[in-house]
Amino acid sequence: MGASTAPLTASRRRSRWVAAAALGLISSTFSTIVSQLFAARLGRDAAVDWMTVAAIPARDLALSAEPSWTAILTGIAFHQWADFSWALVFFGALGRWTADLRPLTILGLALPWAVFSSAMEWFVLVPLFPFWQPLFTLQQPYWIGLLVHSSSAVMYPLFARLRWTWGHTPAQDERFTNAWVTFATVVIVMLGTTAWFGSHGYELPWMGRDKDAEQSYIRHMTTHHAQGIELARVAAERAQDPHLRKLAMLMVASQAGENRIFENWWLSWFETEMSDCSTAERAAMPGLLTQAEVRDLKSAPPGNFDSVFVELMSRHHRGAVKMADQMWQSRSDPRLRVMAHAIRHEQQGEIALMQHLRGPEAVAAAFHNILADNVN
Question: Per residue in 85-141, pLDDT tens?
Fold first, then answer.
């Protein structure tokens, strides 16, 4: 009896590699949808983030002042390939230990796996071997990758159903996975609804403590970014180093995207128009260049332009980092604080990229940028 049951049970199971591939498609797609819908809630421009991911395989070809559909789709495809591959490793290569686990046990292991896989990408696989592309690690703080990988990992319990052929899933696994699919659908609907209202100027209400301070920060950072965009546009046209031209385009895209988010939050949270910064405010703003310095950049001779731009933009970025760090360490609206942390990481990373930091030094700098206190 036992001998005849074993082959029958085996015939009802899929290959763990086939099930892992199906799970990889589902988990990576869920992660892509969640990332796209949730990005702006945390102050991220999803199009710019996808373009940055696209730069891992496509290098400078992916970068432009306005993310192209080609770059966005390349970034999404590369992200899905990476998530798909991690699922194959977890349930295929490691299937001897993972393929028969219960759904909740899978979930309990999948979340630490998300920490491991996102750390491997951020610290090793992207900036070092095999891609040797420091831009991703210096441009995006580690926690973004962790959130993306976690959104993929929460779909791993569905493997408990995918490992069986159609109609042979044990009843308890079927009940659990049905509930899990319902949960995932509800999450997507809620995020989609929130994203739709957000795109029409109805973000979740402001949750800060000091309205004047937070309004000042948004106004100041918007003004600071506007000058950064102006400087970067000049470099995108005049820089002699092709890589510096592309990096300047990325600066334009990222700061323009952040300004759109600031403007949308302001319109949604406050019942006033965003006023321009006064002359006194501009003079006191850290890193903001004078009009004379901007003219000096624009009139710099071709042979000196790159060095002048790097010096002025590095100073400009350090000022933005100081402003963002003050917001990050405050008790303001959590979304402003999270966005501020990403801004300070991004702009410190761009300083390192302008200095041609590569390899282990770039990883060390990125790790330091996440934790550094830049207020003083």
Answer: 999 999 999 999 999 999 999 999 999 999 999 999 999 999 999 999 999 999 999
Ramachandran category for residue 132: left, alpha or beta (phi over 0 → left; psi -120 to 50 → alpha):
left
How far from the centroid of its chain's Cα atoms is residue 258's Cα?
Answer: 13
CA 210, 213, 219, 224 dihedral sign is negative
What residues does 164 pair with on adjacent strands? Answer: 13
Burial of 127 (0-12, 13-18, 19+ CB in 10 A): buried
Tokens of 89: 């490793």
Domain ranges for the chain, please list them: 8-199, 211-371
Of 371, 366, 369, the residue nearest 134 (C-alpha):
366
As a whole number of angstroms, the distance between CA 310 and CA 308 comes to 6
Calculate the CA 221 to chain-centre distance: 20
What is the number of other CB atoms lying within 10 angstroms of the CB of residue 175?
Answer: 12
CATH, domain 211-371, list 3.40.640.10, 1.20.1260.10, 3.40.1190.10, 2.60.40.60: 1.20.1260.10
Confidence of residue 40 (pLDDT cuts 50, 70, 90): very high
Residue with tokens 């983030």, as numbered in its chain: 49
Partners of 239 in the beta sheet? none
Cα–Cα dist 114/154, whole Å: 9
Whole-angstrom Cα distance, residue 282 to residue 276? 10
Tokens read off for 42: 């945390």
The yes-or-no verdict on residue 1 having pLDDT over 90 is no
